[in-house]
Specification:
32% helix, single chain, seven-stranded mixed sheet, 9 strands, alpha/beta, 310 residues, 9 helices, two-stranded antiparallel sheet, 18% strand, globular
Length: 310
């Protein structure tokens, strides 16, 4: 797999920032804000028209937000350390073939890189908030990635600065909660994938009907979440839109729903309980060599069951 030289054609991008080695603690006000921002991913920053060059003018873009980057680092670190989250991500990302060219939308601080970067041939990280460039570069450096194999591009998911049919896989986690247009984002994902390419995703979604109290909590918190987290929605669900975009008879869509461990039908609930319902899986674009290893559904179920019974 891989891509021929020059096949990836990113739009204009700013110079990369050198990785920061600052040990300045997160200010108390930012830590408190992180406690409020319970569920959004690195795309949850306020839209600003025209803030990013090289993107379509009809798509809202986002200005650099240093404070939000600090808030996300403080607020989501314990989520990323959860055993059920780590095992879910391992089960997902093992589907990405070795020597692949990967685009990650909303790379943020680079928390996903450790799962797939060591075996990737080329990574193009599309990130709307330039304040994450330093942390993402640091994460790449810790993994030993060379500049020739890791490229940060400033852009939005609704208008990725990549040519058609150029990547083997697209990665996105906690992205669709706050994009301006979910369908347009997924259409962009499908556009840049090569035939046979994979979209690997994990998103927090609305609570299922049987979790009525959690759903009520999400509905009550959603207006504040949208306001304080730059448009991050707690009540979205993407299954129907995924099915509508990956609708070719030869496309393959594998979906799995699960709840974070420890979140029952009623309080008390652990941190990040508003994010507990998850929708994750792999969408395969029609064409190319069809890979049919162990289904992502069965492998995810096995990984999550092991996490919950450990």
């Amino acid at each position: 797999l891989g891509v021929a030289a020059g096949a990836i054609q990113p739009g204009p991008r700013p110079p990369l920032r050198l990785p920061s080695r600052s040990t300045t603690p997160v200010p108390r006000r930012d830590a408190l804000a992180a406690a409020a921002v319970v569920g959004c991913g690195p795309w949850c920053t306020p839209p600003v028209a025209g803030a990013v060059s090289g993107t379509r003018p009809d798509v809202p873009t986002r200005a650099p937000d240093e404070r939000f980057a600090r808030v996300m680092a403080a607020g989501m670190a314990d989520y990323e350390r959860r055993d059920d989250v780590r095992r879910m991500k391992r089960a997902l990302f093992e589907r990405i073939p070795a020597d692949a060219t990967v685009a990650e939308i909303g790379v943020g601080a680079g928390v996903n890189l450790a799962y797939y970067a060591p075996t990737a041939r080329k990574i193009v990280a599309v990130e709307p908030n330039a304040a994450f460039f330093g942390p993402a570069s640091s994460a790449a450096a810790r993994l030993g990635l060379q500049q020739s194999s890791f490229e940060l591009v400033e852009g939005v998911a609704e208008a990725m600065p990549l040519a058609d049919d150029t990547v083997d896989a697209v990665v996105g986690t906690h992205v669709l909660c706050s994009v301006t247009d979910v369908r347009r984002t997924l259409e962009e994902v499908r556009r840049v994938l090569k035939p046979g390419g994979l979209y690997v995703f994990a998103e927090h979604v609305a609570a299922p009907r049987e979790a009525a109290m959690l759903g009520m909590a999400q509905r009550m918190a959603d207006p504040l979440q949208v306001c304080c987290a730059g448009g991050c929605h707690l009540r979205r669900d993407h299954a129907a839109t995924l099915a509508a975009v990956f609708a070719d008879p030869s496309d393959r869509l594998e979906l799995h729903r699960f709840m974070l461990d420890g979140v029952g039908p009623a309080p008390p609930w652990p941190p990040h309980f508003l994010l507990a319902p998850h929708l994750c899986g792999v969408a395969t674009k029609a064409g190319g060599e069809r890979r049919r290893p162990t289904s992502v559904v069965s492998s995810l179920e096995a990984a999550i069951t092991a996490a919950n019974t450990a």
